[in-house]
Amino acid sequence: MPIKILPDTIVNQIAAGEVVERPSSIVKELVENSIDAQSDAITIEIEDGGIEKIKIVDNGIGIPKDELNLAVTRHATSKITSMQDLEKIGSLGFRGEALASISSVSNVSIQSRQKDAEFGHEIVVDFGEVNEPSKKGMTTGTIISVSNLFKNLPVRKKFLKTAATEAKYISEVITSFALANPAISFTYIKNGKESFRVEKVTSISERIHQVWSTDIFNDLLEVFYEHPHLSIKGYVGKLELSGRKAEQWMFVNSRWVDDRTVHAAVREAYGGLLPPKGRPFFVLYIDTPPHMVDVNVHPRKEEVRFASQSFVYTSVKNAVREVLGKVDITPKVTVFGNEVGSDDIPVSSQRATQYSNWSDHGDTSSVNIPGRGGTPFITKSDKQGGYGKSQQTYSQQPSYGFIQDREASALPWEEVAGDEVMPYQIFDNVYIFTFGEKITIYDQHALHERILYERFKTAFENNVENVEVQSLLIQQSVTLNPQEWETYQESRDIFSALGFDITDKENNVLQVQAVPVSLKDSRIRDLIPTVLDEWGEHENITADKDLALSYMACRSAVKAGDRLTR
Question: Spans of biased composition, class Polar residues (predicted)?
């Protein structure tokens, strides 16, 4: 076969494979254009996860009529004019290929009006075929509608996930723009219903308050670092937030990126304070002169390359470590009945210097486990011969191994009847059952997880009327991030079946009126977001109820270090 030049339609579709991976890619490219157009109000509307329709409305400066055709032409851009511009990019978009790529794999309508223009104009592109502009009555700004994504490429469309999952990806993109641009208001409408809204504010802290709850904000520590060639601002989380997997955000010159150097620096700053596999919560804004960072190293601009990786690593690590050193976040350990703080533990001189200001983190909370009345627990007065307790404030990572073997083993009190079962707790970690002359030892987290799983399963398989429910004297408000909200909308039937009484409020807030009795002592404000976060990692958690109940049981169960009071 002879070598020949490919037609533009095929070239654009090949380019679209790099730029347009899924609906969220389109949202990202179009919102970047809106931000570059100096908009301060942007609305994103989708249908069926963005597969059927995406609509972006902004109040920016608009596009002149005679440039509408150029807007959908490859490598046509107003952002750069020379090689020197490419070396110091200050805008989010710059390649001039997004609209051309998008319009080659979908139906696209672009309506735009400039401030002083009498009319707006509209151009329609059907899978690469451009129509002539026509007049359009509209306000100043731009409206771009994308529909029938990948209709001409069924193989590409086959690789998209469910509409609900694609909507979650879009929610994440919108959250990133909201965090990066506090001076812009964002509205997200999904299937005709408003899902997320933040009004424009003047500071990062105000925007973080809008995206997350006050409870979370109160567990954040402010980071501030200034250097002639680098500034670092933002927030890192206390250890209480280290289990929230999704909340790690970094922005370089207002661009949402994922950089290994920054991840490694933050983790190193926390040192040994994090539990195994724990992830620190952080939202960091890194600003550096454009010529000191290359943003043109990834097809979708998701990664950057710093001129000096080591300088950025050291700066981020020191900035985070400095703020951690100013507060009391070191876990407290009780050894043989005596509380031991950081000053009592021998450490190397280097470690002592690094963490000299860190002190006790505080007591673990007492929690309850369902059991038989009058069961004895080992207390301080009972400790003899060195039987003390060792507690740590972090929660062990879920293994789900105990409940996976649920068919093979019985609960301890099922083996022996009546008062012969004598449970004891030691080390705030292990549960010992005596059966006459026999002793069985259980991990308290795994045991409670099994109990809760069986109760949840029974509740789910029967009518909700059979579930024992505890009404809350003081109703609890739970604020979710956009991704957790999407997952809740999919899984609300699971919560109802388990006995939760939850009402939707505005701005991604849930009002909890009642919970299953098994969870009446749980920290609901932490439990619900954590469970939704884990459920959200599965494409369709509602299709695997068993797995969903396993996650709920694990996250609801007592943890290693929790003191059981009855």
Answer: 352-368
Classify domain 8-198 by CATH number.
3.30.565.10
CA distance 552 to 419: 31
Instruction: Give which of 255, 554, 198, 262 is closest to 395, Cα–Cα.
Output: 554
Cα-based torsion angle of the residue sequence 293, 296, 299, 305 in order, rounded to the nearest 10 degrees:
-30
Residue 296 has pLDDT above 90, yes or no: no
348-364 pLDDT, tens digit per residue, is 444 434 444 443 433 33
Q: Check pLDDT > 80 for residue 176.
A: yes
- Rounded Cα–Cα distance for residues 113 and 142 (Å): 7
Q: What is the mean pLDDT of the chain?
A: 75
* CATH 3.30.1370.100 for domain 367-564: yes
Q: Which token pair is 64?
A: 């002149």
Domain spanning 212-324 has what CATH number? 3.30.230.10
Contact 470, 515 (CB under 8 A): yes
Q: CA nearest 482: which of 26, 31, 172, 48? A: 172
Range(s) for CATH 3.30.230.10 in the chain? 212-324
Alpha-carbon distance 415 to 437, whole Å?
A: 13
Q: What mean pLDDT is predicted for residues 201-205?
A: 94
Which regions of the chain carry the CATH code 3.30.1370.100? 367-564
Is 481:196 a contact under the CB 8 Å cutoff? no
| Separation between Cα atoms, residue 59 and residue 57, nearest integer Å | 7
Q: Which residues of 43-58 are buried (b: 16+ CB within 10 A; e: fewer)?
A: bbbbbbbbbbbbbbbb
pLDDT for res 455: 74
> What confidence tier does 286 reach under pLDDT thresholds 50, 70, 90?
very high
What φ, ψ does residue 141 adopt, rounded to 5°?
A: 130, -165
Residues of each domain in the chain carrying CATH 3.30.565.10: 8-198
Please determine, for residue 108, whether its predicted confidence score (pLDDT) is greater than 90.
Answer: yes
Of 410-424, 476-490, 551-565, the poorest mean pLDDT is in: 410-424
Kindly report the three-state secondary structure assignment for every residue of 104-173: CCCEEEEEEECCCCCCEEEEEEECCEECCCEEECCCCEEEEEEECCCCCCHHHHHCCCCHHHHHHHHHHH
CB 49 within 8 A of CB 166: yes
How many Å separate Cα 155 from the centre of its chain? 30
pTM beyond 0.85: the answer is no
Which carries the bigger pLDDT value, residue 51 or residue 551?
51
d(CA 392, CA 332): 7
Query: CA 443 to CA 126: how far, in whole Å?
Result: 62
Is residue 57's pLDDT more than 70? yes
Q: Which residue has the tokens 């504010």?
A: 201
